[in-house]
Amino acid sequence: MADETTVHEAHGSEAVHRHEPPKSFIRKYVFSLDHKVIGVQYLTLALVAVFVGMILSVLMRMSLTWPDMNWPIIGQIKPDQYLSLLTIHGTMMVFFVLTTAPQGGFGNYFLPIQIGADDMAFPVLNMLSFWVTLVGFIFLIASFFVYEGAPIGGWTAYPPLSAIPSAGPGQGTGMNLWIISIAIFCVGSLLGALNFITTLINMRARGMSLMRMPLTCWAWFTTAVLALLAFPVLLAAGVLLYLDRNAGTSFFVPAGLFIKDIVQPHSGGSPILWQHLFWFFGHPEVYIAILPGMGATSHILSTFARKPIFGYRAMVFAIFAIGLLGFFVWGHHMFISGMSPYSAMAFSILTLSIGVPSAVKTFNWLGTLWGAKIRFTVPMLFALGFVSLFVAGGITGLVLGQTSLDLPMHDTYFVLGHFHLVMGVAAIFGMFAGIYFWFPKMFGKMMSERLGRIHFWITFVGVYSIFIPMHIMGIVGMPRRYSRFAENGQQIYGFLESLHPLVLFVTVAAIITFFTQFLFLFNLLWSLFKGKKAGDNPWEATTLEWNTTSPPPHDNFAGVPPVVYRGPYEFAVPGAPNDYIMQTEPDPAAGSSEVSSGNGHDGHQH
Amino acid sequence: MVTTVTSTERVKRKTRVGVGGAPPGGNGQNGKGPGGGGSGGKQGDEAHRFSPKPYRLTLWILIAAIFMMFAAMIAAYVMLAMGEKWPEVVMPRLLWLSTGLIVASSLTLEAARGSLKAGSDPGYVRWLSLTLLLGLGFLAAQVFAWRQLVEQGVYLATNNHSSFFYLLTGAHALHLSGGILGLSYLLMRTRHRRAEKNAEMKRRAAAGVVSVYWHFMDGLWVLLFLLLFVWS
Amino acid sequence: MGRALGVVIWVLTLASVVLFFSGWWFPTAITEHAPAIDRQFMITIVVVGIAFVAAQVGLGYAVWRFGAGRDNKGERAVYSHGNNRLEMIWTVITAVVFISLGVMGQRVWASLHFNEAPAGSFPVEVVAQQFAWNMHYAGPDGKFGRTDPTLIHEDEQNFIGLDSRDPAAKDDLTTTTLVIPVNRPVELTLRSKDVTHSFWVPQLRFKQDLVPGMAIRVHFTPTRTGLFQLACAELCGMNHFSMKGTLLVLPEAQHRELMAAPKAEFQSRLNDLAGKYEMGVIYDENGTKIGKSY
What we know:
heterotrimer, B: 232 residues, mainly alpha, 7 helices, disordered N terminus, C: 294 residues, alpha+beta, 6 helices
């Protein structure tokens, strides 16, 4: 803090006050208080995590398809190793990719800029939240390198498997590290959420009323509220589980468990309790992953459709409705868990009603495209891909949300296909759209459109090829979380035999899609150094981030806080000189001279 | 708590001569004026810049999060208590004392804020110190209650009732310690008189924020007390 | 670019739909409640399919039709902020469709879960453990003997901790095969010795977790005989994938005879009977072959 204040004081006498960035490398790029640097740090963490998670998933596919193969370096993947890959893949993707990148990364970078603030409300908290998250990440990775390796209980960590260290390999030290990692992550997310909410409510620029905020901000805000209310519950559950494992309590462990030839000395706990607590967090978590993607998609769709977003208010209400309903549907993960069948019915109806705001969003996206003049840039392609994938993945929720259909479909590949499409790749497409869209702003360089297009086409077709066939596998009855379906060339379950061609097809598609992602990585790095220089507003967009330089200065607007005069998506306004009007552009009729007087950009080099 | 206040410093020292107090021109049809309350704290002249709003808001958000965590634990308690019959743990009577102490501390804290409002610094310090003592007394009573249980041979893992007892009281004590830090901070700030209006406002805001947190901890304890002592 | 994207979206949509008609489907069901589930699934898939195709075709059309073209100078999109009436209409329509689907989906659920098993149901206690299934039958006296986890001795083949001092336990039978009669309601009491498992026979069309500390009851009526595989559908540890069991549905007379067999002969008779059926093939109630279930 001390450095910051000195900086402020030192420049206090200037007419238009700018915050200079800290001078030392460490303060500027490592322990930075600048929300933009922190955003990039989050994104970098997520990028590392997503590649780790992807490698794990490809290893899993390879092991499933060729279970007896001895691979170079890694050897044969054993059943327990497969489950470790599965657990860390899930945890990595859900927490360190889908939660950190859209919210911690893009949200951190662009929420303050889009509302015209110079930073987050509490920069120190913001910095802490990143470093705390990083520590959580290190703990998770560390679980691979302890005795017996990473836990095998899946990212949902159902007890008693997760509560009794002797229940399986990796359930000892590895599982402890997993819980610690998640608990740390919860704290980091809470700090972040606190900051997001306060910033959005208190630090909006003049004229930036709530209903003039870009939809991205609404999405980040709702996500922060969800995180704020959901993560404490996971934290509590994690503490209870940790105590069960290490202090002999019995919150989740009932009496009389017979594991590893001994009757376990616990009594009185309930495994279902964990499921309730976990899914009370877990379902909102799904929306934590997808809402920012929806926000970015709306934003980018409108920008490149050159048309105002269709039904702005409906979009805002839909985001809220999804967020709110998201807290009352956790039971649909537990229809067959032994929970009361009456409450299952209530959960089912609520679950299907969550489809309504989701459908409203889809209709509004289509409405936005109708009569548009679409510019097919790479970010737009990914945003359109998001819409397509969101529909494809989300719509099967209507199947899974029904109590009676969950009886055959629960825990099959149908579920796998469903959630990977909707909260996995759709959310990732939202992030791809975001990175291609905002990269010029963040780094002042354009990304290669040509590479981006190749990346899009292969990835788009690839993810459909991976996840649509999984629905079919699920209908046939393939259970998820199986380390293998054949042993010594012999199919274990007769009813799954016919699926072999599909399994092979999915694996090949996964490997191709995986390698295509290196094209993206290359594009990212290459453009960083060799990309075409980007102007301040290369996409001719309207919101505040395009109102400052690329990249923005340390305090975002070079000491001149923007004043907002209109809604976020004023494209194609009849009679206007351009087909877009920036949010900061005053209405010529309303005489705005006194606002801008004496407040020009004079004397401030960017 | 500490970080919050540090950032206060930062906001205060930002000097901005900018758009000043000019109204948001243009077509402010949707506008409710310049942003939320907080942005007011960043423009205009020094004396009027401080606004307690963001801090109060952040505190309420924090309370929501803490509440959710305790709600999860309480829900767990209720769910398990409604299931199997637990061997009951006889709650130490000392808990009545700790409950009395913390309820009293809320009252003395309000008395302290009353003094602050009335401009009586000695009164403020006196009441605040008393509150702090009561708070520490509460923590001490909790520790003694634990020791009583341990002497009876009731430990964390003895049964679910005792597990929840240690868990809930422990988690509460941990969060209450944050409140103790807040009170100590308030007390430290009384050592230097602030002539400046802005500083005085800040002091009141800090007192307000700490008191809300403290009352929340008080209320939370009463809830836990009823749950552990009376309900089972 | 827009046209290409439109075409790709349409092709992917078509391919997805074709895949759903390509013959990979549920194994044939063998229970009374299954046709209702299959019907509900069909209805839902059709509704979902129509919505899916409509949305994708609409999206494809929009990108096909409303591209800006390479050199659009001065051309502008339609200026519109939306249409409240349209918004109302599609909200109401989707709400009605989705919620009616949800309500319809409760029927089978209610019939399975809200009623007790009918009187005269055949009771079986299913006790799961890491990577194996134990089936516990009451024997001729119709009473299950007491079990206790401290009595579990796997080396003595006492996998479920059956208390041999309990008179009711004397005639109890335990084996790894779930053997049940056709056309008679069956009531399973599901328990687990160690971690959470899930009972899953695709041909029965239901799944139910076995949660340690709980005794969960389910009931169903098989309508066909045959030999089927039982799988675990809840991650239960290292060898979760190989936790397979067997379900044998017998004609009622055969089943009655088997259950009345002397304890010593039970297992060998069971093996003989199981040997007459081909895995995964459906037989009618008298044991005549109908065809493969998958």
